[in-house]
Each structure stands twice: as structure tokens, then as C-alpha cells.
Write a structure and sequence with these properties.
CATH superfamily: K homology (KH) domain
Radius of gyration: 12 Å
Shape: globular
Strand content: 25-35%
Number of helices: 3
Order of helices and strands: HEEHHE
Number of domains: 1
CATH topology: GMP Synthetase, Chain A, domain 3
Largest sheet: 3 strands, mixed
Strand order of the largest sheet: 1-2-3
Length: 81
Amino acid sequence: MKDLVEYLAKALVEHPDQVLVTQREDEEAIVIELKVLSEDMGKVIGKQGRIAKSIRTLVKAAAGQEEKKKIAVDIIPRDED
């Protein structure tokens, strides 16, 4: 799932080298954190959150029935290093 989110995000943003994706897992859920530069947030979220919703839908579809846990994608602004 992490690779899918990274691929999609890098295709959308102006600064693909600044995309950072991490995944953490506990007993109840898998959380994928997508960090992009503040100026790229609009491209990843889209009008009325449509792109973000689409990314989340694709991740859930890719997980399919094999993952019994809840899957969440969090989009977080990243400060320039």
C-alpha cells in the first residue's frame, strides 16, 4: 500500500523528491502517512477533497479482502528541510 500511495503522490505534485510516505500498523488499523510540501497540498487534496478521497479509495481497493484491518491515509504538510 505504501508504494501505491507514493507512486500516486509523486505523479501529482510539483516536487516529487519531497514526497515522504510512512506506514505504521497496530492491532486495529494500518495508517499510511503521506507528507508533501505545503505548496503541493492542494494538488494532493484536490477540489473539495476529491483527489484525496480517490487515493483513499484506491488504497482500500488494493488492500481488498486480504486486510481485515481498517486502512487510513493521512495527508500531512511537510516543512522544507
